[in-house]
Amino acid sequence: MAAAGRRRPGRERTDAELLAAHVGGDRFAFEELFHRHHRQLYRLARLTSRDPDDAADALQDALLSAHRRAPAFRHDAAVSSWLYRIVVNSCLDRLRRNRTHAYAQLDDQACPVPDPTGRVDTALVVERALMLLPVDQRAAVVAVDMQGFSIAETARMLGVAEGTVKSRCSRARRKLAETLNCFTVDTVTE
Fold this sequence. Notes:
With 190 residues, the protein is mostly helical. Helix content is 67%, strand content 0%. The protein has helices at 15-23, 29-49, 52-69, 79-102, 117-132, 135-146, 151-158, 162-180. The longest helix is centred in the middle third of the chain and has 24 residues, at 79-102. The termini are far apart. Mean pLDDT is 82; it is low at 1-5 and 186-190.
């Protein structure tokens, strides 16, 4: 004896039958309809949205809308066409919403951003000055002063004594100071 609502073996319900069964209270009919069309609907959403996250969200919104609006389906088109239209509309709605958010004007006064040009110029000058140093001094001062390694760690890395690292750093700092001295700016007079 077959229970009511079960499918008969060998016969698959049509999309229209599944939608009608859903409207009639069959809890699993819409799920079956969803699984039948999910790949094509997601592909359509993906092509329309061009973003996998937006496509997934739009598809979820569309299927929730279709689930709720199923009783209003007029049967003047195929159920698949109806589902496709809902997915496309959901994608377009999402694109419109994202477009308005993406181009919102930022108020420069609300979030001032300092001009990084001075820091970039300084970094370039320091890099050029570093390149003027002998390789052994440059390696020592970069490891200790820029990378934060200890004298002992630097000595192990470079394969030299700790005293050698200290003297190389000292000589490198002195040469850097001389090279960079011409770039000091008196900020008090500005």
